[in-house]
Write a structure and sequence with these properties.
The structure is a single chain. α7 (361-371) links the parallel β13 (349-356) and β14 (378-385). The chain has helices spanning 21-31, 39-47, 86-93, 109-125, 165-184, 316-330, 361-371, 413-421, 443-453; strands at residues 67-68, 100-103, 129-130, 152-155, 194-202, 206-211, 226-234, 247-250, 256-259, 266-270, 275-281, 284-294, 349-356, 378-385, 400-405, 429-432, 487-494, 500-506. The protein has 513 residues and is an alpha+beta fold. The strands form four sheets. A seven-stranded antiparallel beta sheet has the order 2-10-7-12-5-4-3, covered by helices on one side. A five-stranded mixed beta sheet has the order 1-9-8-11-6, with no helix packed on it. Strands 15-14-13-16 form a four-stranded parallel beta sheet, with helices on both faces. It folds into three domains: 17-52, no CATH class; 58-294, Jelly Rolls (Sandwich); 316-467, Alpha-Beta Complex (Spore Coat Polysaccharide Biosynthesis Protein SpsA, Chain A). It is built from nine helices and 18 strands. α4 (109-125) packs across α5 (165-184) and α6 packs across α7 (361-371). The longest helix is centred in the middle third of the chain and has 20 residues, at 165-184. InterPro entries: Glycosyltransferase, Oxoglu/Fe-dep_dioxygenase_dom, Pro_4_hyd_alph, Pro_4_hyd_alph_FE2OG_OXY. Residues 192-294 form the Fe2OG dioxygenase domain.
Length: 513
């Protein structure tokens, strides 16, 4: 006799009928493949005169150039995310394959809309910064990246509980896919170490030039943590082909494959060798990117190769390399050089830079080398207190020595300054700066000349001298004020905590030389 208010179990029902979608996902993840829908679900769909959710397809790249993947509309409000199928895993693990797969309608309309709304809320409530390009296969390395990459971005916290629930759900589904990929293709070295970025292209034909997401310099990716798999999730509900902004994948045979950035489309590809670009877009284009890392240890991120034991300048090719890559874009016409007749262009200089989550650090280093009269004699000691992987310093080789720290381990500038001091290897001159600065051309020769003018007392006796100043500000990306008057640090007031505050003031006139 049935209990009032309950229905009898359907004939032929199994234990799978009693599993919640969450438990079903765990079972499928452990088995490595999707299970058939429980009989009660099939019966329910049949009785409601509805068809089951259609299978998601994996888009295979065509041979002819410029074709596009156009998602079809779905009526289902909920689609349970399945694990990667064998064909998808083959595309991601096989070196001579296209290296990417496309999942359309990844979450279903309701969940995708919720993620879209949550991300829009983040763009309105969270400051976003211009994106940066650090290093590429070509020589187009620049610190003013508007022509190369026009998006703005924000890095999401590693603690998923700090994110809106729809975003937590999306990241959990992506993680489920990556868990299955890591088990099925261990040679990819994918680990549960990841970073997530929300990026917006603001229209106006902004783009991102062809690039790959990881560059394996000197096989460092085998020893250090580096990006292995890129997961792109698109958030644009009303996309038309006239808007542009497609993701163009460059195939090994020279053809291309365009993917429209339509809401609820997930693209997964190898970070190490899949060349791709964002075509110019005329409207706002929103995307969420999660990178999965491999190699190294869970607490380390890639660092540059160890510096040579002797801090002697490298060959002139370094100066030529830096000049051709950075000078034209980093140094504007308004940057007047500091003229010094017959100055020292050979003595080595060590530059100490601590950086705490500063997006201006990479442009600062680029501008430092681009404006030096003799960049080959400049060596940087950098204490990077950053969460995300930053390989943009790799192009400088032994000229940038890095100590990496998690921001959670930071205790203020004193420790960071000490860490950079440990990277000094006996260079003749020592310059200590912040991670958000710009420079006049010839700064290295000029500073050595000025310091040597202070090195002797009026009586001719040698003395130790230090040049110190409070630099004027600059306008992003690289606009330096024409004012060359010195500044002084002056006490301004006591704050609410009783601390004496200081401010920089410019002298009315420059002292006579």
């Amino acid at each position: 006799m049935a209990t009032p208010g309950r229905k009898k179990a359907a004939t032929g029902a199994s234990l799978l009928d009693a599993l919640s979608p969450q438990l079903m996902s765990l079972v499928e993840a452990s088995l490595g493949h999707s299970l058939a829908a429980p009989s009660s679900v099939r019966n329910g769909l049949s009785s409601a005169n509805a068809s089951p959710p259609p299978q998601r397809s994996t888009v295979q790249p065509p041979a002819n150039r410029g074709e596009s993947v156009i998602p079809q509309s779905r009526s289902s409000d909920y689609i349970r995310v399945g694990v990667l199928n064998p064909s998808e895993i083959f595309l991601l693990r096989q070196a001579d394959s296209p290296g990417f797969v496309v999942r359309e309608h990844f979450l279903g309309p309701a969940a995708a809309t919720a993620v879209h709304d949550a991300c829009l809320g983040l763009t309105e409530s969270t400051p976003m910064r211009p994106a940066q390009v650090g290093v590429g296969k070509s020589t187009a390395v620049t610190c003013h990246v508007a022509d190369a990459r026009g998006d703005q971005l924000v890095w999401l916290p590693h603690d998923k509980t700090a994110l809106p629930p729809p975003l937590q759900h999306l990241l959990a589904q992506i993680e489920r896919l990556m868990h299955g990929l890591a088990k099925a293709a261990p040679e990819l070295g994918v680990r549960n170490v990841k970073s997530t970025q929300l990026a917006v292209f603001p229209g106006h034909n902004t783009r991102f030039v062809p690039h790959v997401d990881t560059y394996d310099h000197n096989n460092n990716a085998k020893q250090h943590l580096s990006r292995r798999i890129t997961c792109l999730y698109y958030l644009n509900p009303s996309w038309e082909s006239s808007h542009g902004g497609a993701l163009r994948m460059h195939l090994q045979d020279g053809t291309t494959w365009d993917i429209p950035p339509v809401l609820d489309t997930l693209v997964v590809f190898r970070s190490t060798d899949v060349l791709h670009e964002v075509l110019p877009t005329t409207v706002h284009r929103l995307a969420l990117t999660t990178w999965y890392y491999g190699g190294g240890s869970a607490t380390t991120i890639p660092s540059t190769p160890p510096s040579a034991t002797s801090p002697t300048p490298t060959t002139p090719s370094f100066a030529t390399n830096i000049a051709t890559r950075t000078t034209s874009s980093c140094v504007t016409g308004s940057n007047q050089p500091l003229e010094v007749a017959g100055g020292d262009a050979t003595s080595t200089i060590f530059v100490s830079i601590p950086s705490y989550c500063d997006s201006e650090c990479q442009p600062t280093v680029a501008h430092l080398f681009a404006t030096a009269a003799a960049p080959s004699r400049v060596f940087v000691g950098l204490c990077l207190q950053h969460e995300q992987d930053d390989q943009s310093m790799d192009m400088y080789g032994e000229h940038v020595r890095i100590k990496r720290m998690r921001p959670a381990d930071a205790t203020g500038p004193c420790l960071a300054r000490w860490e950079t001091q440990q990277l000094w290897k006996g260079e003749a001159f020592y310059l200590q700066i912040d991670s958000h600065m710009r420079f006049r051309r010839g700064w290295d020769v000029y500073l050595i000349d000025q310091l040597r003018r202070c090195s002797n007392s009026p009586q001719g006796r040698p003395r130790k001298a230090i040049l110190t100043t409070y630099p004027l500000g600059y306008t992003l990306p690289n606009e330096i004020p024409n004012d060359t008057r010195p500044t002084l640090l002056c006490a301004s007031a006591f704050d609410s905590h009783g601390m004496l505050r200081q401010c920089g003031k410019v002298l009315k006139t420059s002292p006579s030389s």
